[in-house]
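R.M. (postdoc): so does anyone remember the format we settled on? I'll just put the structure tokens first.
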């Protein structure tokens, strides 16, 4: 049975994602929370459809408008891949459709080809990296700088400001980040910042912990442009990874861009012991809608 999702259904989507998670999975419970709450609802009111069997969620599709699809299907229900793609196609209403499965998802690749998608060989891609949390090096900071977890509401404005500076965008706001901090499975002890000698937050790393699978996802990381090339991104990530290890995780994952057009994040993660194990591929179906008159 298919139905459309409300705001409360995110947890059910996360529970499906957690239940079927493996290193070959395209999603982590943390990137669902970040994707849902990083922007206010007026900026990110994207359609979601759910498929249930006997009251249990077995598939979801999430269209990030105008043309990008995320999907998760329980491997016990492979026929639902075609249904999710059909839903997306109807939603696009003649517009372009695009999605980005992992290389290992052979069933998704086959479903996309059946639905008329074509692989875009030269498109940007994301490289999935993992690292065991054993033998983590200690973070090293310049004199006067401190790495620490956020302290809740008292740090909210500075936490948002460093993200805005790092990404040169104001779409993440105090309102939206407050929602992030209220979302499951956010933990303040895994939300790390670097504080400069004058009290400014100048780098950040947020990790989301999947306790059932003992794996943490880094999403996102950023450094204020005035404080780059000081090793702050490396230090804040290592501080957060040590905190992740303390809460019981054994593994961390991160999904930076892997193509030559955006090399710096991948270099950062590889410098602290992450190695690539899979990558995404872009599949697209050209739109057939006529341009507006």
């Amino acid at each position: 049975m298919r139905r459309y999702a409300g705001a409360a259904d995110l947890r059910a989507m996360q529970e499906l994602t957690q239940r079927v998670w493996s290193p070959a999975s395209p999603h982590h419970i943390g990137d669902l929370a970040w994707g849902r709450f990083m922007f206010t609802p007026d900026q990110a009111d994207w359609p979601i459809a759910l498929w249930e069997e006997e009251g249990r969620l077995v598939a979801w599709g999430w269209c990030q408008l105008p043309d990008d699809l995320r999907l998760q299907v329980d491997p016990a229900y492979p026929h639902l891949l075609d249904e999710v793609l059909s839903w997306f196609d109807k939603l696009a209403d003649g517009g372009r459709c695009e999605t980005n499965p992992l290389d290992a998802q052979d069933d998704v690749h086959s479903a996309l080809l059946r639905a008329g998608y074509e692989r875009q060989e030269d498109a940007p891609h994301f490289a999935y990296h993992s690292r065991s949390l054993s033998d983590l090096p200690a973070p090293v900071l310049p004199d006067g700088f401190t790495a620490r977890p956020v302290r809740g509401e008292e740090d909210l404005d500075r936490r948002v400001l460093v993200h805005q500076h790092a990404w040169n965008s104001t779409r993440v706001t105090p309102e939206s980040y407050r929602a992030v901090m209220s979302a499951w499975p956010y933990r303040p002890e895994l939300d790390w910042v670097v504080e400069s000698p004058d009290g400014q937050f100048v780098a950040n790393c947020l990790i989301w912990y999947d306790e059932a699978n003992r794996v943490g996802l880094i999403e996102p990381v950023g450094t204020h442009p005035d404080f780059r090339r000081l090793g702050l991104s490396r230090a804040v990530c290592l501080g957060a990874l040590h905190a992740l290890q303390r809460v019981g995780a054994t593994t961390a994952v991160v999904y930076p861009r892997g193509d030559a057009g955006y090399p710096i994040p991948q270099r950062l993660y590889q410098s602290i012991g992450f190695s690539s194990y899979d990558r995404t591929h872009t599949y697209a179906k050209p739109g057939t809608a006529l341009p507006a008159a």
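R.M.: ...and that's the designed sequence above, right after the tokens. Also worth knowing: The first helix runs from residue 10 to 19. DSSP finds eight helices and 14 strands in the chain.
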